[in-house]
Amino acid sequence: MDFAYNTKFPLVVIIGGGFGGIEAAKKFKNKPVNVLMLDKNNYHGFWPLLYQVAMGSLECESIAFSLRKKFDNQKNFRFRVAEVKGVNPVGKYVETSIGDIAYDYLVIATGSTTNFFGNKDIERYAMPMKTIPEALNIRYLILQNLEAAVLKASKEEREPYLNFVLVGAGPTGVELAGSLAEIRNHILTKDYPELKKEEMKVYLVDFLPKVLGPMSEEASKAAEKFLRGMGVELLLGTKVESYDGETIVFEGGKSIRTMNVIWSAGVMGQIPAGIDKEKIVRGNRIKTNVYCQVDGFTDIFAIGDVAASITEKTPNGHPGVAQVAMQQGVNVAENILNIIENKPLEAFSYFDKGSMATIGRNKAVADIGKIKFQGFFAWLTWMFIHLISLMGGRNRWIVFINWVASYVSYNGGNRLIIRKFVKETADAQKNAVTKADQ
Amino acid sequence: MDFAYNTKFPLVVIIGGGFGGIEAAKKFKNKPVNVLMLDKNNYHGFWPLLYQVAMGSLECESIAFSLRKKFDNQKNFRFRVAEVKGVNPVGKYVETSIGDIAYDYLVIATGSTTNFFGNKDIERYAMPMKTIPEALNIRYLILQNLEAAVLKASKEEREPYLNFVLVGAGPTGVELAGSLAEIRNHILTKDYPELKKEEMKVYLVDFLPKVLGPMSEEASKAAEKFLRGMGVELLLGTKVESYDGETIVFEGGKSIRTMNVIWSAGVMGQIPAGIDKEKIVRGNRIKTNVYCQVDGFTDIFAIGDVAASITEKTPNGHPGVAQVAMQQGVNVAENILNIIENKPLEAFSYFDKGSMATIGRNKAVADIGKIKFQGFFAWLTWMFIHLISLMGGRNRWIVFINWVASYVSYNGGNRLIIRKFVKETADAQKNAVTKADQ
C-alpha cells in the first residue's frame, strides 16, 4: 500500500486518533514526513462528554468528529480504518486488519480500555463506558429498564429496574450519578406518570473513602455535599465483590438488587501485541523514556493513556487524562522531527492545567493549580472549557443549544431507544450454559 | 393492566405513534377518554428528513421525538413500548409483547413498511429506508464502502464500492440521489484524497418513464434537469430484475456492479394479525369507510398508510403521505368522541396542501394546488415547512444549524461509523449455505 504524499519523506504511522494522536498529526502539518493514522473508528471522540451521551442529553455525533474531515486540508496526512493487531519492531511494520504496514516511525496512541480487574462476572454483566456504542448501550438499557419498571405490578418487582449503581467515584462516576439524580428529580415522573420518584435510587460506590480521589480535599468534600443534596447515596470505602446481572454484592455482605450497574472503576492501557512484557508496567502501560520513546527503541513512541513515562518525579507515569496525551502528542511529533533533522531530543514535561468535574445544574468543582473553587462559577467554567475544546463549530453550537434547552426546561435530551440493547442476565447465562451442555 | 386516568371513561388504544396516531392522541386532550398509545419504539420519527440521516447530514435524534415527552402534559395519556401481534375484534383486545390489552375503541395507525414485491434476493441484499436503524445502516454501509474503495488497488476493484443505485424515483429516491451527488461533487475528494470524483456514480432507477411520478409534469421535468445537472444518471422506464448483493440486473440484460443498492420503490401497509383478509385491499391496506372505521366495525378505526378509505372519488384510497395520516388522526378522534356523545359521525375529506421534493442546494420542486414552482424559492419553502413541522424547539434549532453549516461549508454532516454494518453478500450467503449443509 502506498501512503506517501512525497516519497522522499519518511512515513510516520500513528495508531489511534484520540487526543494524543490528533495533536501529533497536526504538528506534522507542512513538515517533511508522510503521516498515516490508523484507527478502528473513523472518528475522534471527545470522551469528557461521553457520560452525557449515555444519559441521553447529547447526541453521540455532537461529541465526535470525522478524522478524515479533521485533516482534509493537511496534504501529508492519510487515514485508514484499521484494527492494529500487532507491532513488529524488528521488521518495522504493524500488522493490521487491512494488511501489514511498514513504518519509519511509529507512534502508539491506542489509549485505554475498561479494567474489570479480572472479575469475569462483572465484565459480563456490568456496563462499561469507554466508547460511543457502550454509552449508547447504557442509555438504551436505562430507558428499557424504566419501561420495564412501568409494567411491573409491585414495588418489589420494580426495585431492581429502578436501582442504579455506579461503581467508581472518579469524574465519570460522579458525573453519571449527578445526571441520574437530575433525571430522577426533574424528569422521571413527567415521562413516567406511573412511577414514583422515591422508588428510583442512585448509588455511587468506591473502595476509596472519598469521591474524586485524585482531586483536592475541597473538591472532594464539595462534590460529596452536592451529590448528597441531590439524593445520591454514597457507598464509600466499599468494595464490590460480585455482580450476577441482578444483584450486586459488596464486601461485608451488603447487597443491592439492580439491573443497572455502570462500571467506571478503572482503566488499563490497550497495548498492541508485539511489545515485550518487560516493557509493560502498572496499569498495562508501556514504559517510555522522557522523550516518549518506548524503552529500548528510537523509532517507536508511545503517548497518552497507553504510555507511562517513568521518571523519579513520576514513578507511576502521568495521570491518564487528555491534557497529558495532547502535550505528549506535540512532544512526540517534535522529537520525530528532531531525529529527522539530527537535532537533540526534547524531554517531555507535563504542564498540569488543572482538573474539574461537574455534578449537575450550577454545581461543579475545579482545581486549577492552587486555585480551588466549587459551585456555580466552577460549573460555568466547566461548560465554557468543554465547549471550546470540542472539535468543529457545528458540534459546539449543537452542544450549546442542548445545554441551554436542558437548563431552561429542566427536561433536556431526547431519551430515544434507537436500537434495543439485549443485556445478559444470570438467567439468560444459565440457560445458555444449559443449552451448551446438552 | 391499568391504563385509566379516570375509570369512568372508555379506553382508546392507539397502535402507532406516527403522524396519524399523534394527531389523534392530541385531539383527545381534556376529553372524557383514557388514551393508551402503543408503539414498538419510544419515539415519533419525522420521516420526511430520514434521508438526511442516511446521508449523514443530520443526527437521527434531531428528527425524532420521545412519545412520552411529547405527551407529558396530557393527563389522560399513557404510553407503552410494545409490539402488537394481533387484534381480536370479538374479544375487543389486542395481543401484544407485554400482554393482552382490552380496548373500548381501537385506532390502527401502524403505517407502512418497505415493499420488495416478493423478491427475496432484493429483500436480502438491498437496503430499505423506512426506520432510523435502517437509515443508519445505509449511512454506515456507504461510509464503509468508501473506506473499502480506498483499499482497492485497481479501478475495476473499486467500481462496485463506488456505484450507488437508488431504486424508486419518488421523493425519497430523488432526495437520496441529489444528496449522494452532492457528496460526490463537494465532499468525496476532500475526505478521500485517494479517490477520484469520476469513479463515483449515482444511478436513479424507476420503472416509470419519469421521476416523482405523482407530482406535476413541471415538477418532474425540473427534478430530472436538476438531477442530470448534478451528474445523476437516470435509468427511467427500467425494471429491476435481480440483485445478488454485488450486481444489479435490469430487464433487458443491462447490469451494474454495485455494493450499494437502496430500495425505495414501494411501500405496503403493516397490518396486525386478526384483520379479515377480505378487508385488505391493494397495497396491503385496510379498507375503511369515510369515517375511518374498519369495514364492518364501529369501534375499530384505521388511519394513515395502513388504511384505504375506498370511495368513488378515491378508488385506491388516499396517497400514503403524512398529511393524510394527520388529517385522519383528527377525524378519527372527533368521530370517537362523536360516538361517545351520541352525535352523528363526520365523513373524512382530505385537504391536499400540496407536495414538494428537494434535490439539493437551492434546488427543489413544489406543487401547491395550481401553483407550481421550482428552484431556489421552492427550496427555501421546503426548508421552512420542514423546519416548522419538526417536533421540539431543540430539534428545530439543531436541524437549522446543521443546514446552515452545510450550506456555508459545502461539507456538512459528521459521517461517522458508530456501529459497523455487516452486509450480507452473495458470497457470505453461499458460505452460510455451505456451512449449514455440512
UniProtKB/TrEMBL annotation, chains A, B:
Q: Which UniProt keywords apply?
A: FAD, Flavoprotein, NAD, Oxidoreductase, Transit peptide
Domain External alternative NADH-ubiquinone oxidoreductase-like C-terminal as annotated: residue spans: 353-407
The UniProt catalytic activity note for this protein reads:
a quinone + NADH + H(+) = a quinol + NAD(+)
* Gene3D superfamilies cross-referenced by the UniProt entry: 3.50.50.100
Q: What is its EC number?
A: 1.6.5.9
Query: What InterPro entries does the record tag this protein with?
Result: FAD/NAD-bd_sf (IPR036188), FAD/NAD-binding_dom (IPR023753), NDH-2 (IPR045024), NDH2-like_C (IPR054585)
Q: Which GO terms describe its molecular function?
A: NADH dehydrogenase (quinone) (non-electrogenic) activity
Give start and end of each FAD/NAD(P)-binding domain.
Answer: 12-329
Organism domain of life: Bacteria
Which family, according to UniProt? Belongs to the NADH dehydrogenase family.
User: Mind telling me what this protein is named?
Assistant: NADH:ubiquinone reductase (non-electrogenic)
Q: Which organism is it from?
A: Mucilaginibacter limnophilus
